[in-house]
Design brief:
Blueprint lengths: L2 H10 L8 H21 L4 H14 L8 H11 L3 H21 L7 H17 L4 H12 L4 H7 L9 E8 L2 E8 L1 H17 L6 H17 L4 H14 L2 H18 L13 H19 L3 H14 L4 H14 L5 H10 L7 H11 L3 H14 L3 H5 L13 H14 L1 H11 L2 H21 L8 H16 L2 H8 L6
Antiparallel strand pairs: 1-2
Helix pairs in contact: 2-6, 2-7, 3-7, 4-5, 5-6, 5-7, 9-10, 9-11, 10-11, 11-12, 12-13, 13-14, 14-15, 15-16, 15-17, 15-20, 17-18, 18-22, 18-23, 20-21, 22-23
């Protein structure tokens, strides 16, 4: 069978678009039956069969998140009925085809879920074909009406891995990294023009949707394409669809972990594209989980991020805060102590420490660290009050700090309101102003603009700042009418 005849026969088996999901369900089944008959009559070459099998394998990835609740009900009802479980498996495999062919969003309506369940049951019960043949049909139909056109635009037939694990010296230590292969470049070139549009300010929503659909279609075939996941997640963020962002992050992480060994040597580094994507996905997923109030899941995700990635103070701050918010771990005290030990780095951790102590009921320590943080970063007080601030520091990420304040506001509103009360307290503001003047002299020393103190003495001054502030805190507690502990 020639290549031209092969593609023509595949195109002849494609399903026409219809208006309603119920009719579309019948159309899918009819198209797969016609393709099954084609397989019986024709004999594709080894290469043609290999290409279809490769695509079929890619389609077996677990991207059926939105069918989860209905499938769970069906599994529980099926018990030990083998044919019913096989039907559910067929539904799982049919799921990506439905969206790529219809060019819809990933959120399937209830009527579509019913239609897909119906398709799965009818396929398994009525088609006397192995599941691989059914998958071949779906793989072709996923490409739209012209398999030839889609296969040319998207080099899915290239079996090369997107990333490979390399182990060797990195920054003086042996470590395992996820390195990009030429297959990534090949695939990125086909999408480069599309992705370039996303770099413009406020791209047209219709254009962005078209680009998203193309990227989703590619990911259905190559789920190990991490830069594809990174771009599609960005598009989901522009649309504000939290469910799809979370689903895409989970899929991207799962595919990255399939490429990594069970036990890593050393720590992953941002210097390697694959490693960088994986670490970024973990951080973003933890933030989404925390925003949704699933603190246990967020803690677990950050624990994984800390285990595989190089040390990062922003991650450490997130972890200490979420661990304290969750309030279940015996490691809370150790994490707070660890965070406190690096205070001289002046990276904004004082505010996080203040929140952690407040959550533990240690109000005096909380106010001490709050005032110390305000002394180093005087714009924190107006920022917390919601005022416009123009002072910025490269070592205090206000965007990340804003996310942490949201976690506190949703999980512990009482403590959040107390923090706002501290931000508006005049005595705390006076303490912050007093020590900020001294701190500015310390900064001058560090920058070589003063000869009054040696650099090591300025570090000692910063380390001793919380102790100096703490001497004035009892006065603040009395004026606020609160006890030193709650």
């Amino acid at each position: 069978m020639s290549q031209e005849e092969f593609f023509a026969a595949l195109d002849a088996a494609a399903v026409e678009d219809v208006s309603f999901d119920a009719d579309f369900a019948n159309g899918i089944e009819d198209g797969i039956k016609r393709y099954a008959r084609l397989l019986r009559k024709q004999k594709p070459t080894v290469g043609q069969r290999s290409m279809l099998e490769h695509v079929a394998k890619a389609c077996r990835q677990p991207d059926w998140h939105f069918l989860q609740s209905r499938l769970k009900e069906a599994v529980e009802g099926a018990g030990h009925n083998k044919s019913e479980k096989a039907a559910l498996l067929a539904v799982r495999h049919a799921y990506p085809f439905y969206h790529c062919h219809k060019m819809l969003s990933w959120a399937m309506p209830p009527v579509g879920q019913e239609a897909m369940l119906s398709i799965g049951r009818r396929l398994v019960d009525s088609l006397h074909l192995p599941l691989t043949s059914i998958m071949d049909a779906m793989a072709h139909l996923m490409g739209g009406r012209s398999w030839a056109e889609f296969s040319q635009r998207t080099p899915i037939s290239n079996p090369s891995p997107m990333y490979r694990c390399v182990t060797g010296l990195h920054n003086g230590r042996n470590s395992t990294q996820l390195e990009m292969t030429p297959a990534v470049d090949e695939l990125e070139r086909t999408l480069m023009d599309d992705w370039a549009v996303l770099e413009h300010d406020n791209p047209d929503p219709a254009v962005r949707e078209t680009i998203r659909h193309r990227t989703e279609r590619v990911l259905a075939f190559r789920p190990d394409f991490l830069s594809g996941w990174d771009n599609v997640i960005t598009m989901y963020q522009l649309e504000g669809d939290v469910d799809r962002i979370k689903w895409a992050l989970e899929m991207a992480i799962a595919n990255a972990e399939e490429m990594l060994p069970a036990k890593l040597e050393g720590k992953l580094s941002f210097d390697y594209d694959g490693s960088r994507f994986y670490l970024g996905f973990l951080k973003s997923l933890a933030e989404i989980q925390a925003n949704l109030g699933d603190l246990s899941a967020a803690v677990k995700t950050l624990r994984r991020r800390r285990a595989v990635g190089a040390s990062d103070v922003e991650i450490d701050m997130d972890y200490a805060l979420l661990l304290t918010l969750e309030g279940k771990s015996s490691r809370i005290g150790a994490e707070i102590t660890k965070l406190q030990a690096g205070f001289t780095q002046r990276d904004g951790r004082a505010l996080v420490l203040s929140v952690c102590y407040l959550l533990r009921g240690e109000v005096e320590a909380a106010i001490t660290w709050f005032a110390a943080g305000a002394a180093i970063f005087p714009y924190l007080l107006p920022w917390l009050r919601g005022e416009k601030t123009y002072g910025r520091s490269t070592v205090c990420d206000l965007e990340a700090m804003g996310a942490r304040m949201n976690w506190l506001r949703h999980s512990r509103p009482k403590e959040y309101l107390f923090l706002l009360r501290c931000a508006a307290d005049t005595q705390i503001e006076r303490i912050a102003d007093r020590f900020n003047d001294q701190y500015q002299r310390v900064v001058d020393v560090k920058l070589g603009r003063s000869i009054h103190l040696a650099p090591d003495e300025s570090d000692h001054w910063t380390a001793d700042l919380p102790e100096r502030v703490s001497r004035l805190v009892p006065r603040v507690l009395r004026s606020m009418g609160v006890h030193s502990s709650t």
